[in-house]
Give the backbone structure.
Amino acid sequence: MRILLVDDNKTNLALLTHLVERLAGCQAVPFLRPDLVLEQVPQLNFDIAIFDFQMPGMNGIELMKALVSLEQYREKAFVFVTGATDIDTRMAALNCGAMDYLTKPINPLEFSARVRNLVALADARNKLADRAAWLKSEVDKATAELKDREHEIIDRLTMAAGYKDPETGKHTQRVGAYAEAIALAYGLDQEVATDIRWAAPMHDIGKVATPDAILLKKGKLTDEEFNEMKQHASIGYQILAGSRSKLLQLAAEIAGSHHERWDGTGYPQQRRRFDIPLSARIVAIADTFDALTVARPYKPAWSFEDAVAYIVSCADSHFDPACVVAFSFAKPRIRDIMQDYEDQAEEHPRLAACL
């Protein structure tokens, strides 16, 4: 147990040091001046501090306040030693947060008894702090394991949907990465943006209920077929909604609303403007951009510049203007994602982007 001692009187400091060193398990950390103590901060390590109340330049209360302004010292036990016997001095010591005070001249027996009690208290505090740190570590570990399970569920659901609608192998990864980049440029914090990246790949999971004759058709869809195709948004929401997982709840709102349009002409509910969840407004841009920039049997890939120009031209009609601005800010990152997740040149079934 390290005990910080500060007294400008060498004789008093020597006595305090001697008394502390006599106590089992205690180590004295002596200083003659408060400024020397502050020079050692924040490397200074102690469990209990015993200060002379009145010292030149800085008294004990001022030194204590300087130390407890730093978080690492706020829970430490502080004791004042004072030659004053008036109630005001003693109350000043206690009111500033001191655990105890001792009067001069120091009685060795009383000092040892008081310090032993403080050592026991400090030891209990340290054990409690260690316990709290352990509990936090266990909670963090459990939270991480839960996140890992949620991510695995999402990966497997996305994989299952891929057997029904085998889009380009990296389409869902790109949409998630694009959405994260847009979310960060929009100003969302990293945790929220990462959740959007994980949830976004399930935006088209409702296509598992779309008939193959429609889903894999290479020609233009009829009006009836297109109306059937549009059901995938509502079905995707129904598959994912009601989960206790916040990540799956986020995926549900994306699946259900990523084809809504800012001007209210989208589907399935013709939501408009801020009635559309922000996550879906972001993914709508990511999904459309990817559909434009990837070659399909029924269309060539658009250039990066042409696709960007199209997204910008649809601000305030198809897309949330603020999300389009964020998309524009994120262009360097989006270009990198295109290169990192580039598909191999091969034939792929129809991607029903429903632009």
